[in-house]
Amino acid sequence: MTAATVQNTEYYDLLGVLPTASATEIKKAYRKLAVQYHPDKNPDDPQAASDKFQKISQAYQVLSDPALREQYNEFGAEHAVPEQGFADAYDFFASLFGGEPFRPWIGELALLKEMLRSDDENTSSTGPTLRDGVQHQPLMLEDAEPTPSMREQFNQHKKYVSRQQKEEAARREEQILEERDRRVDTLTEELRVKLDEWVQSEHTPEDMERFRKRYEEEAQNLRVESFGIEILQAIGSVYVQKATTYLKSKKFGFGGFLNRVKEKGAIAKDTWNIITSAVDAKLVMDEVAKQELQNPEGLSPEAKAELDRRVTSKVLAASWQGTRYEIMSVLREVCGRLLSKKQPADVRMERAKALLTIGTVFASVHPDPDDESRIFENLVLEGKRRKAAAKSEKAEKSAKSSTGSRRRNFFRWRPGGDSKRHADAKLANQTAAET
Fold first, then answer.
1. Residue 101 falls within a domain, yes or no?
2. How do residues 195-244 score in pLDDT, each as one tens digit?
3. Rg of the chain taking only CA atoms, in angstroms
4. Is position 423 within any domain?
5. CA 36, CA 381: separation in Å to the nearest integer?
6. CA distance 296 to 401
């Protein structure tokens, strides 16, 4: 299909690709734009970003489907509509981290859901406000000094707004906790069914081999999803850690304690990674704003492309760290329920073995270095490599500086506190006296 034979190039233009673009190029363009125009990343004009976000999601839904793309190319947008209608933009953006195939394993990601929550819940701070059934105009302070009654009104207004915001925040927090409980309940049941397939078997080597192969096939199916390998490794890490802690506690007694200490250390490290990733993203975004101010005529295409790449890399890294932390936190609770003392001891033991098997399979999945579809994953890895290289370079410079300082101090000082110069002078005086 050439550009000349496409009836309308609007969808291609929205994604910034040619009509001859490959499926990988279309996916790459969509993922980049989905992050760039996400309303949460555009606080200055969230409505405009939201409109753009919806449009590029619609374009991608058509162009990522071979049949719909063919219809679009030949007849235009009116004849290229999914049978079930266009999906919500959230569903497409959520596919950035696993998507629908991972739902039985990790549930619906709360982080993305919160990011995409409608701004309609927020009340506007301008214009008349409705309170107690009465319309009130915003307070207007005139040139004269405010009267006490005006100050009173202002303080009452502040108290009202503050109370309303606190109540709204409390309601939202309660809602989030309820949603998390439901999510943990659902995932606990999903995982129980999977583990009990082994629990209810004869526990023969052949049964274990069949069980392992089933989840090796599952892992191969899931690894092709966006960030699929990273999510599998996160799931596997939790499963292995929880199963190992339980099995060692039953075998050695103290082994479980050591593994719990290790788990707490891993949680602390993950928390630190989230903070540093968010700070890195903010610093790069500030740098972009600074560059734009310093270059009012605009950056060169090469410089702009490099800055865009760095911003996308940092934002993705921060989003992934938050998502990974959320996934692992939820799964720790799920595993804890299935291995709790409320369950019979023999069932817990077999569930732990099954959990260890699945976890080992998932944790052993690694990316193919030649896989071109891992566009965003490679961006995150590239950012990590840059950071590690910069840290290594800084450490090397520090080591060289420290070594040079030690050498200088070695020649400058001698035991007892005398400098080399003073020691030489003292030796010369002693020699002269003896002579």
1. no
2. 999 999 999 999 999 999 999 999 998 988 888 999 999 999 999 999 99
3. 30
4. yes
5. 19
6. 40
Model confidence at 160, pLDDT cuts 50, 70, 90, reads low
**Judgement on whether residues 240 and 327 belong to the same structural domain of the protein:** yes
Residue with tokens 């966006």: 226
Pick the last residue of a domain from 37, 71, 87: 87
- Among left, alpha and beta (phi > 0; psi -120 to 50; other), residue 145 is beta
With H, G, I as helix, E, B as strand and everything else as coil, classify residue 268.
helix
- Among residues 43, 69, 87, which one ends one of the domains? 87
Work out whether strand 134-136 and strand 129-131 pair parallel, antiparallel, or are unpaired.
Answer: antiparallel
Q: What pTM does this model have?
A: 0.60
Burial degree of 81 (CB within 10 A; 0-12, 13-18, 19+):
middle
pLDDT of residue 432 exceeding 50? yes
CA geometry: angle at 103 spanning 276 and 372, to 5°? 65
Residues 235 and 289 in one domain: yes
* Residue 113, in any domain of the structure: no
338 CA to centre of own chain: 27
CA distance to 197, 207, 281, 354, 412, per residue, from 212 (Å): 12, 9, 40, 9, 67
Residues 76 and 8: beta-carbon distance below 8 Å: yes
Residues 343 and 397 in one domain: no
Paired with 131 in beta bridges are 134
Please check the confidence at residue 255 and state whether its pLDDT lies above 80.
no
